[in-house]
Amino acid sequence: MSGEWILYIVFGATALVSAIGVVFLANPIHSALSLIGALASVAGLFLAQEAFFLSVVQIIVYTGAVVVLFLFVIMLLGIDSADPREEQLLRRQWFPWAFLGGVIGVGGLVLTITGIDLPFGVSGTDTADAVNEAGGNVQALSERLFTDWLLPFELTSILVVAAIVGGVVLAKRTKDLRGSGMGLTPDLAERISEEVEADAAEGELDPEDAFEADDVDPDPDSDAVLVGETSENGEG
Amino acid sequence: MSVLAQAIPAPQTDYTTIIPELIVLGTGLLIVLMLAIRRFSNIGWYALIAALGFAAAGIVAYVDLWPEVTDGAATYAFSGMVAADGFSTFVVILSCVAGVLAVLLANSYLKREGLDKAEYFALLLFSAAGVQFMAMANNLVMVFLALEILSVCLYVLSAWNRDKFASQEAGMKYLLLGAYTSAIMLFGISFLYGGTGTLNIAALAQFFARNVLENQGLVFLGMALVVVGLAFKIAAVPFHMWAPDVYQGAPAPVVGYMAAAAKIAAFAALFRILFLGLSAMEVDWKPLLWGLAILSMIVGSLLALVQSDVKRMMAYSSISHAGFIAIGVAAASAEGMSGALFYLVTYTFMIAGAFAVIDCIGRKDEQYTKYEDYRGLFAREPLLAAILTFFLFALAGIPGTSGFVAKFVVFEGAAEGGQWALIGIGTVAAVIALFFYLRLIVLMYMQDSTERPDLAETRARVAAGPAVVLAVTVAATVLLGILPQGLLDMAGQAVFAL
To answer: Which residue, B84, B218, B263, B305, is the most exposed by fewest CB within 10 angstroms?
Structure first.
């Protein structure tokens, strides 16, 4: 068993365990931390493939930036507000599938370790020798990126532009709070207040603390005002 | 030799092969730029720019590229990333037509609902470019990237009416499920790479021509997962769960475009990957498409029977149409493929027209989309009711409309391959489908309109954009129903040049 295999098995197992943790852990913060473990293990897998540059980028971009962003979102949303009942429901629904996935993953690992002959396919053109010949990881990667993979590289920028334009359009608040701030539409506000009241009836939450239902006017006639203001905002 | 001395070879850039895509993308970026500099108060200007962009791209593709690509083999550009051939050019032209119809539909809708932000048109253009690159993609990474561009735009467009709960729900559901299936597809692509050592679709075919695989497990898994990812986009059963909610919640003009665009793109990718790349595995993927086609036709038709909302019914109808088009793929022949292409063209027109009517009848806020609201429609809105009836007949495949010819050519393709069981099931599904279309038609004509005095007072407004869309789509549906030969020849050429 070569060193690459040992690295593969160790990091593969950590990646799997962490990934299962992302799904199963009750606390979102723990899930995010588990995600760091999964992404770092993938960086380790890149390392085992001698893709050093990719491995470092994986840690900087994913483990660093992306997960921090996730944690930010979780903090902003507030981890305490999660309804424990919903969580349980979610876990129960996911359990059989996650379990199945875990069994398949662990089974694959066991098969790999015991060396049963599986179809392992063929290696592509970007072997370690080819990388060395090009003068290292960064050189090889940049050369491929700006020659053969130029068009996909450019298209990625279009994808990012589309995502940003879409995100800005959907997230930008109009002046009218009822109109779009936090997506609180009259009928949505009504639904939320109904749910809160129903919870309060069961004695679980205090509606005054949770949500000021009276702030929102569920009057459908207010649409006319709303439309005028949103369109004005779109022009300005 | 120092590292610096090694010059990187210049990339292979054949911009002439992707001129239509460059025009579409450029127009989209132009709109984004214009928005950053100065906003026109009337979004009609942006609509005009977008429509002109689509028209220019379509005309360039037809006049400049089409004659070139139909008489020769595919030309590969950008180091084999894209292929310019009759097939891709055909799809590019079709996506431009769908784009123009979508722009015309959207303009009046956005103004009426007070959602007039010009970013709509930019996203529309980007999504169309996604469709076009998907048809041209000769590399699995390109397929994935193009699919993501298309999908991201469609997620946002579905949630465009963000003040409406249903629209938010539609966008959110589409996003979550779409992202999940994209991951599945990517997983499949990685398996295909692991099994063959290449991502290039043409090279995949060469790999299978040179090698006989002792164990196909890895490649089969990859192929199956890629099919799953694409089947989600065409809303084929059992990957259709998102369609009813998204179709019901998303704005009508978006659905009229999305239903066609997503199908065009995903089928184009399916054709190229399965026919070209994995033709050696025909025995393996044929049963998958058989299953998808049969399940989609039957389940879509049956569930459409029990709906009470027109947009939701159209969602199930689109699922069953996905099944019919999948017959063309399952036939695994040039005839089946050109039939499917023809079907996609007719479907693009029919669905745009049908949703133009649904948009007009739905009025402000799309509040009238229930079957209840269509009761006695003919007495209130004779013209709209007549046009909708025409489109429903066309969707059902009544002779004299393009829908009939489309179903006929797809069945013909299957018959050439001797797949009579598929045709039999398709015919049964078509008969069931006739029922649910007729149910709505009966409701429109046979019921007394006095039951809805609230609707009888005012007439539905048909703005200029939807009016043009209706005129064009009705004309196209009639014309392709009576004189389909021109387009059939084009579809045939598109396939043979592949």
So the answer is: B305
